[in-house]
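Methods — Computational structure assignment.
A single polypeptide chain was analysed. Its primary sequence is given first, followed by the predicted tertiary structure written as structure tokens.
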Amino acid sequence: MKDLTTRQAEVARWKTLRARLTDAIDLLELAIEENSADEIQAVAQETAALEQEFAQIEFNLLFSGQYDRNNAAFSIHAGAGGTEAQDWAQMLLRMYLRWAEAHAYRTEILEETEGEEAGIKSVTVQVQGEYAYGRLKAERGVHRLVRLSPFDANNRRHTSFALVEVMPELEDEGDIEINPDDVRIDIYHASGHGGQNVQKVATAVRLTHEPTGIVVTCQNERSQLQNKENAWKVLRGRLAEKKIEEQEAERARIKGKHVEAGWGNAIRSYVLHPYQMVKDNRSEYETARTDLVLDGEIDPLIEAYLKSQVN
């Protein structure tokens, strides 16, 4: 029923757009006949609005995947490099949270492991909102940062890596069936800063899917039950994402082109020194406004990637 309602809304949106376009044409003919500058200006304004509306609908057509409309969860893992990489993972987290805020998406940190000196070792965030997965799936892969290190006394240039994983939230648990016997469940005390915030009761949950080796942890809720429910959601999402990746790899193999997703194949580079540039290595889209990108304005990068997958 939810899918039917969504599709009916899409049809209604197209019908409304067509009606507005017909009205604009009629108004333009009348404006020309009466030589009315005001009406011609009104048509120009309506045309600009129609173009913007059409561009948004056309963009939404890029979301044709099975789970593209769903909520999502993403994880960030700092690569090798200690504090430098952990700080980069923290920068990426801020970028995605700012992006989600701009889209009015609701976010919740399910698990976070802090670095010893700065930044984070890993984090998992739930994102709720329409097309959350369809957009965020463009971000999965290795992200590379080049900059003058704020942690290097000699102010040398460093290269850091972080891995971003993106999983859809499955509305129908039957989409991915998990044998409970294949999952090891560990309960432990959530990590914290110490003092009064240390959990007295073990509430953190770790799920290990033994056939695939996928490990999911959730610890930010005070309730063990809530952490367990969130962990199961993320596990289903990761298994769904693994299935999608396997299907994409098979299609790429059939086409004769397949590149392993490894540290040597960063999907995007963020260069802050000796020049300013963010470049997506898949779509070739690039921008010199690194400040805007790191502040969450990543929609042009996402759109360029999605369009490159269609062409």
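Note: The CA atoms of residues 128 and 246 lie 25 Å apart.
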